[in-house]
Every structure is written in C-alpha cells, then in structure tokens.
Amino acid sequence: MLKYASWIHGNAVQLEDPSGILVKKVGMGTEMQFNTLVPGISPPGTWCHIAIPSPVIVNDARLKLQKVFLLFQTGQHAAIDNLHIFDGPRRIFMQDVVPGRNSSARRTGNHMQAIDAQNTFTLPAPVEISFGVSISFTFRPVALTTSLGRADPEGKLLITTAGADFV
C-alpha cells in the first residue's frame, strides 16, 4: 500500500559535466542540447542527477522505495541510456544500456505528459530508505549527424519532473 509519494520539478536537474551541452532552465523543466559538434566525432554525453525529497521515517516506521518516475522528452538524436537510483551513497538500482546487447533499456521519445512504462522504473523489491533518494541518468547522443551546424536541434533532452512512490 502506498504510504507516500514525492515529486520534484525538472528544474532541479544537475549535470555532472556540462561542457559541450547547452543547459536552459525553462518553465517546464531543464532542457539540455548537444552544442559542440566536431565533424566525425560524436559528443560523449553526460551523467545527470536529480534528488527526490525523501521521507525516511513516517509514523515511527522507515519507508521503502517502490518505484521512481522520470518524465522527459528527447529529440531524435538523444536518449537516456542508463538510470541508477541511490539512497545517499548506496546504489540500490541500476538499469544500463550495453551497446549491442540490451538497447531496450534506452529511453527516447515524448514521455513528459503522463506516467507510462518508459518513464517508470520499478525496483525488483521495495528497498528501505535511510538517507535520501537520487536518480542519476546519462544524456547521450544517438544517431547524431555531426555534419550539422554548431548545435543539433534534435540532440535535446527535456526533464519536466521526477518522483517516487514509497510503501
């Protein structure tokens, strides 16, 4: 039974290495776009992080994290490739894309309007939370045409909100 749900606006996203990426905080969230394009070389992408307000104890009982949500929209040349969930320093969940092996973990398209299978990550079993929940994910170029101008208009990712369900 759901005991608590918590959400945060997409403007809370932090980039680990923003070099080569245009970052705009807009009314609906954080928009990132690949900016520095070198002919023949695809940009490396970057890890992004967003902390979820996390109740750890409610009515004298520790809560358990059941699922997280990351609502987003990508352009045709961008994707979310890896997603890790942390409780403070402890990684409690990870879903990684291994090139040539499990591209079904890759997230693309418009998934910012409603909760769906592409923006929901359910843990195999609920995990007791001790410190605070953070979602980390990679923003990566996909099928990028490096012959374009300085910035790729389809190399975009917009994060609108993130949330979590606790049981």
In short:
By secondary structure, the protein is mainly β.
Helix-strand blueprint:
Layout: E1 4-9, E2 14-15, E3 21-26, E4 29-34, E5 46-52, E6 57-58, E7 61-62, E8 64-74, E9 78-87, E10 90-95, E11 110-111, E12 120-128, E13 133-141, E14 156-166
Antiparallel strand pairs: 1-14, 2-5, 3-4, 4-14, 5-13, 6-7, 8-11, 8-12, 8-14, 9-10, 9-13
Describe this structure in words.
There is one protein chain. The chain has 167 residues and is mainly beta. The chain has a single domain, classed as Jelly Rolls (Sandwich), CATH 2.60.120. The protein contains no helices and 14 strands. A hairpin with a 2-residue loop joins strand 9 and strand 10. The chain is elongated, with a radius of gyration of 16 Å. The protein starts with a strand and ends with a strand.
Key structural traits:
167 residues; mainly beta; Jelly Rolls; 5-stranded antiparallel β-sheet
Count of DSSP E strands?
14
CATH classification class: Mainly Beta
Structural class: mainly beta
Query: What is the CATH fold-level name?
Result: Jelly Rolls
- What is the beta-strand fraction? over 45%
What is the general shape?
elongated
Number of domains: 1
Which blocks of ≥5 consecutive residues have pLDDT under 50? Answer: none
